[in-house]
Amino acid sequence: MIEIITADNIHLYRTEMDEAYRLRHDVFVEEKGWCDLAHADHREIDQFDNHYALHMICRQDGRVVGYQRMLPTTKPHLLSSVLADLCEVERPVGEDIWEWTRYCVARPYRERGRTLSPVANALLSAIVEWGMESGVNRIIIEMEPIWLLRLVQLNFLITPLGIPRDIGKDSVVAVVAKFDCRTLEMLQALRGNSERVLQGQRLPNPVAAE
User: What's the CATH architecture for 2-191?
Assistant: First the structure.
C-alpha cells in the first residue's frame, strides 16, 4: 500500500519522512552523483518540500523502501525554478498537471532487467489512482531517456519538452506524460490484481481546493 503525506498529516510521519529523505540522499547523491543535493546529515531536503508538496511512501518490512514527490505546476517546482533549461517549449502549467520528482526505490526492492518491481508498480499506480481521483491527468518528469520506452509500454502518452542534458552522472530529459484508465489497467495487469494501492480515503487536489 502507498501512503500519501501532505502538510495536513506530515506531523504523524516524522520517522517515515526522515527515512524518505535519507533514501533520497542515498539514491540521488550517493548513486547518481547529484552533488549539489548533498547534506552533511545525509537527508536530501530542498525548497520544494513545502506546504504544497505531496509525498507518497511505500513501506515494507517496517521501513520506507519507495518514495516519490508530487508538486503542483501552478506553484514553483523543479522545471520552473531549477531545471528550466530542460524545457525548450512553452512550459506546461495547470491544476491538471503536476510534477513527479524524487522517485526512488531502495536497492533490494528494485526491478531486475525489464521487469517492473512490485514497489515500482505500486508507486506508479499510486500516481495514476491519485490523479484520476483528483482531476490530474498529466505529469511532468525529468528522467533518464531510457525510461521513455518503458513509460510508453505502460500506456503513458509521452511528449518531450526538450533534448537530454547531463546532470550528475545521468543524461536527463523533461517530458509530459499523460495517463488515463488504460494506464492503470496496464499496471494492474502487470501485477496481477486490480486492488487499489492507495491507503485511506480518496483525497482531492489540494491546489484546486484552495
Answer: 3-Layer(aba) Sandwich (3.40)
